[in-house]
Amino acid sequence: MPEFFASTAKGLSEVLEKELKEMGIPKTIRVSGGVFFEGNWETCYKVNLSSRVASRVLKPVQDFVAYQPEELYANIQKHDFTKYIDVHQTIKVEVVVKESKMHDQRFIAMKVKDAIVDQFRDKFGERPNVDNENPDLRIYVRCKKNKFEIAIDTTGESLFMRGYRREAGVAPLKENLAAGLLYLSEWDRQSPIIDPMCGSGTILVEAAMLAMNISPGTLRRHFGFMNLKGFNTEAWEKVLEEVVSAEKEDLDFKMHGSDLDRQMIRMAKENAKRAGVDHVIEFQSESIATYAPPCEKGLLVTNPPYGARIGDEDNLKDVYRDLGYTLKHRFKSWDAWILSGNKDLILDMKLKSTRRHFVFNGPLECRFLKYSMF
User: Fold this and answer.
1) Side-chain half-sphere of 44: how many Cα atoms within 13 Å?
2) What span, in angstroms and rounded, lies between the C-alpha atoms of 257 and 239?
3) How many domains does the chain have?
4) Which of 20, 70, 157, 203 has a 20 to 30 Å separation from 46 between CA atoms?
């Protein structure tokens, strides 16, 4: 069984595997929802701290087949969960089940919880409490066709929650998806990223952090592995020192963002400031209909609205027509990447894409499309 599993959004597994290999992790197995990788706990700390694309890092601890509640209970009892936390700490069990004889998620969670807390009671005469909000130990249970996979969480709050974005629009792009899009675009990290419909600035902040080599986890105060008994403070400080020492203080180019909504520009500026990259991003309020390149050369990456921020279909059609016109007439010789959550609206641009990737923005399947403007 591989040592760890890094999960990510559908469509980003290949990007995540490449990122892990760039971190110096040679043994990986890519699957649709993420990447298994081998390494020690120091490697786990590093992935949590530095991965821009991962959603969560799990440590698989068991896999077995069970058809009856008694079998499930007995198999859970075979693994010693008392080695992860003290009896006075808290736990939470999260379950996903598909196509299995035992199909009630709440019942499975209760059975797994009972098996774990009974271990503590048998060993210490006490049991840990359940905390559904902020547990010290989160146990993930995945069951498909009666095969159970049990893993412990090392992350805590999902890795997309960097800490810099306290305000956002109605349908914000998750930070790790924004980073994944930048990887998919094959951006060289040495030239400007332009986002003419930047919203709360997520793509630009992630681009700035990537170019400056700022690990996203350095903005967080806590990870799940810090709650575990075996947490190695010395190894953690070593990993943290390594990534902080590799950061750049400045860039010799700027990122550029624009949005028609001045309130969004205010949010974007504040988010960039919290991320420590406001000095390398220039924001302005402007309509896509009149937008022109703010620099000689760069890469345009944007996530246009597909309903939430503007509201009515006629206005959205006009927005996409304006975007197409602006790209065609003002961005000649540029490459543009556009995330589309609405395959009908993207046709209103009247442009032909040269490459495409399918990615998921939450439950919504999107197309990430490349337009080469000649």
Assistant:
1) 23
2) 33
3) 2
4) 203
